[in-house]
Write a structure and sequence with these properties.
GMP Synthetase, Chain A, domain 3, Rossmann fold, 8-stranded mixed beta sheet, single chain, about 550 residues
C-alpha cells in the first residue's frame, strides 16, 4: 500500500518499477526516474550534511514548476523535514512573515524573485538559497534565457551583478554533496510533511499541515479518476502547469503521477503555445487545470488543430467553478480532433490537498462535482450537523484519508473545521439520489482569481491600515482575463481620489500577491451595514452584480 510509505518511499518504489521511463520533461529536457532519484539523493546529502537540515525542520520552497522544485520536495521529505510551499511571486514582506511564523530554517527562492526585491532580501540572506530557472534547460535555451534574464536584471538594478550572480546570496547549484549516507525518515503519519497556505473553511488565511499519508492516499487512488487499473498507469503523461504551492498542482500533477510511474510534464508559466509544444513533444495523455486555462487553450488555434490531441485521454478542472458551457465546448473540440478525451469537473480543498470527488468516464453527471473517490464519504448537513434529505441544500462535509492534520498552531480553528473525522468545507451544495455532489455557493469569503485563492479580508485589513482610510470592503467582480478579480469600496479621509487611488494600489502591490491587487476602486461616503453594525458585503455584491447585469 502506498499509504504505508513516505512520499520519498513512494517515489523510490516507482523508480524500481520504471527506472528508465520518463519522469520529468522540462522545456525539451528529459529526466528519467533513475536520474531523478539520484538528484534527490544528492540534494538530501547537501541538505543534511552541508546545511544541517534535520527531521521536522521547516524549509520554504517558493519556485515555479522546474525540476529543482520537485528535487527539493522529495529530498526534504527523505530527511523527514517539512516543505513549506509558497507562491514564487509572494512579496518579501509576506515571505519573511511566513518564514518567521513557521520558524523556517532556509528558503529556496528562484533568481527572478530575488531580483525584484534584492535589497530587502539581503536582510535574511543567511537563510536564503537561490535557484536558477535555466539550470535544467537544454544548452541553446539556457544561453538565450541566461542573456535575457541578465538584461532584465540590468534594467531593474541599473548594473549587472558580479559574475551574473547576486553578491551576498548562495546559489544551490554551488552546493556539492559529500557522498555520505543520509538517514531516511521513518513513516510517521502524524508528522507534518507539507505546509500549504489557504483561506481555510472560513475565508481567513491559514497555514495547513499535511502528512505523507494524505498525499499518498490521493496518489494511490488516482487510477480511479482516469478509469484505469493501477497497472495501466505507467507510461501516461500529466501536464504540470498548476503551481506547486497549490495542493491541486503539487499532488495531482507532480506527486501522484510520479508515485504511479508516469511522467510529469513541467511548464513553469502557462502559455497556450508552451502547452502545445509540450503536448507535441511528449504526447500528453492528461491535464489538470483551472477554467481559465481551458478557455485559453480553446482560443489557441494550434491547440485545437493539433494532431496530438488524439493522445489526450482525460482532463480535469478544479480550483474554481467551471462555466456550464466550457465542458461542452472543450469536449466538442476533443471529438473534432479525434480524441476520446473529456473534461471532468472535480472538487476538493487545500485542507484535503486536492480532488476528493470527481466525474469520470465511469460515473459523470452534467453540472455535478462527481462522486466521492474510493474510501471517501460525503454528506450534506444542516447548521446543526444533521444530514439533510437528498436534493436539499446544506453544507458539504466529507471524510477521507487526504484530510489535513490541522491548521498550523491553531487548535481551535482545527476543532471548528474537523468534527468526528469530517471536514466541514464551508461550501453549500446538495447530493442527489445517485450520490453525485452539486456545488451551489461558498459560505466563506474567498475569491478565485485565475484559480488562485484571494482573501478579501486580507486586502481590507491592509487598506484600512492606511491612515487616510476609514473603511474598506472588497467584493468579487467578473474579469475577462482572470475570470474574477477584486473591487474595493473605500471610505477615505482625503479629497483627492486620484492620488488616493494610486497610493492604495502602490500599497497593495508592495504587500500583496499580484492576484490580490484590486482592479477597481470605488470611493463612497459610507458603507452599508447589517443590523449588527457589520459591513454588509452581501448587499454590496448584489448591488454590483445588478449594475453589471448579472442578476
Amino acid at each position: 500500500m502506498m499509504t504505508d510509505l513516505t512520499m520519498y518511499g513512494a517515489l523510490k518504489e516507482a523508480v524500481n518499477k520504471a527506472p528508465h521511463d520518463l519522469a520529468l520533461y522540462y522545456q525539451g529536457k528529459r529526466i528519467s526516474f533513475k536520474s531523478l532519484l539520484k538528484r534527490v539523493d544528492m540534494t538530501a546529502d547537501v541538505l543534511y550534511h552541508r546545511l544541517g537540515v534535520r527531521e521536522n525542520d521547516v524549509i520554504v520552497i517558493a519556485q515555479p514548476n522546474i525540476p529543482e522544485t520537485i528535487v527539493l520536495f522529495y529530498a526534504i521529505n527523505k530527511i523527514g523535514a517539512t516543505s513549506n510551499l509558497i507562491h514564487p511571486f509572494t512579496p518579501f514582506n509576506q515571505v519573511k512573515q511566513i518564514m518567521d511564523k513557521t520558524n523556517t530554517k532556509y528558503a529556496f527562492l528562484f533568481e527572478q524573485r530575488i531580483a525584484k526585491e534584492v535589497k530587502q532580501y539581503r536582510e535574511i540572506a543567511d537563510r536564503i538559497y537561490v535557484t536558477r530557472i535555466e539550470d535544467d534547460l537544454p544548452l541553446l535555451s539556457k544561453f538565450i534565457y541566461h542573456n535575457f534574464m541578465n538584461f532584465r536584471i540590468r534594467r531593474k538594478l541599473g548594473k549587472m551583478p558580479k559574475h551574473f550572480k547576486f553578491d551576498g546570496f548562495k546559489y544551490t547549484y554551488q552546493l556539492k554533496p559529500t557522498g555520505k549516507d543520509v538517514p531516511v525518515a521513518k513513516v510517521d503519519n502524524k508528522r507534518c510533511s507539507v505546509l500549504l497556505h489557504s483561506g481555510s473553511t472560513t475565508g481567513k488565511p491559514k497555514t495547513i499541515c499535511l502528512s505523507d499519508y494524505a498525499f499518498n492516499y490521493i496518489a494511490q487512488y488516482s487510477y480511479s479518476f482516469m478509469a484505469l487499473k493501477p497497472e495501466q498507469m505507467r507510461g501516461n503523461k500529466m501536464l504540470s502547469v498548476l503551481p506547486s504551492f497549490h495542493g491541486f498542482g503539487l499532488c495531482m500533477t507532480m506527486h501522484a503521477p510520479l508515485a504511479n510511474s508516469f511522467s510529469s510534464i513541467l511548464v513553469p508559466k502557462f502559455k497556450p503555445k508552451m502547452v502545445v509544444k509540450a503536448m507535441n513533444d511528449t504526447k500528453l495523455t492528461c491535464m489538470c487545470g483551472v477554467p481559465t486555462i481551458y478557455e485559453k487553450l480553446l482560443n489557441e488555434p494550434s491547440f485545437v488543430k493539433s494532431k496530438n490531441l488524439k493522445y489526450l485521454r482525460c482532463c480535469f478542472c478544479g480550483g474554481d467553478s467551471m462555466p456550464s458551457d466550457l465542458e461542452e465546448r472543450f469536449n466538442k473540440a476533443m471529438s473534432d480532433g479525434g480524441s476520446i478525451c473529456r473534461l471532468f469537473q472535480g472538487y476538493g480543498l487545500t485542507e484535503a490537498i486536492a480532488v476528493n470527488c470527481v466525474n469520470t468516464f465511469d460515473a459523470n453527471r452534467k453540472g455535478s462535482l462527481g462522486k466521492a473517490m474510493p474510501e471517501a464519504t460525503f454528506k450534506v448537513v444542516d447548521e446543526k450537523g444533521n444530514e439533510v434529505p437528498r436534493g436539499e441544500l446544506g453544507e458539504i462535509i466529507f471524510k477521507s484519508g487526504a484530510i489535513m492534520l490541522g491548521y498550523y498552531q491553531d487548535e481551535e480553528g482545527t476543532k471548528n473545521c474537523i468534527k468526528d473525522g469530517y471536514l466541514y468545507t464551508g461550501d453549500l451544495g446538495y447530493m442527489d439520489k445517485d450520490d453525485f455532489i452539486f456545488f451551489k455557493q461558498r459560505k466563506k469569503r474567498v475569491v478565485k482569481v485565475s484559480g488562485v485563492a484571494v482573501f478579501p479580508s486580507e486586502v481590507e485589513q491592509l487598506i484600512e491600515s492606511m491612515p487616510e482610510v476609514s473603511a474598506c470592503a472588497a467584493i468579487r467582480i467578473p474579469d475577462a482575463k482572470l475570470q474574477h478579480s477584486l473591487k474595493v469600496f473605500v471610505v477615505a479621509k482625503v479629497v483627492d481620489e486620484t492620488a488616493m487611488k494610486e497610493k492604495i494600489l502602490d500599497t497593495c502591490r508592495k504587500y500583496l500577491i499580484r492576484w490580490s491587487v484590486p482592479t477597481e476602486i470605488e470611493f463612497r461616503d459610507e458603507l452599508p451595514l447589517t443590523m449588527l453594525g457589520k459591513v454588509n458585503f452581501r448587499l454590496l455584491q448584489e448591488e454590483e452584480d445588478k449594475k453589471r447585469g448579472l442578476l
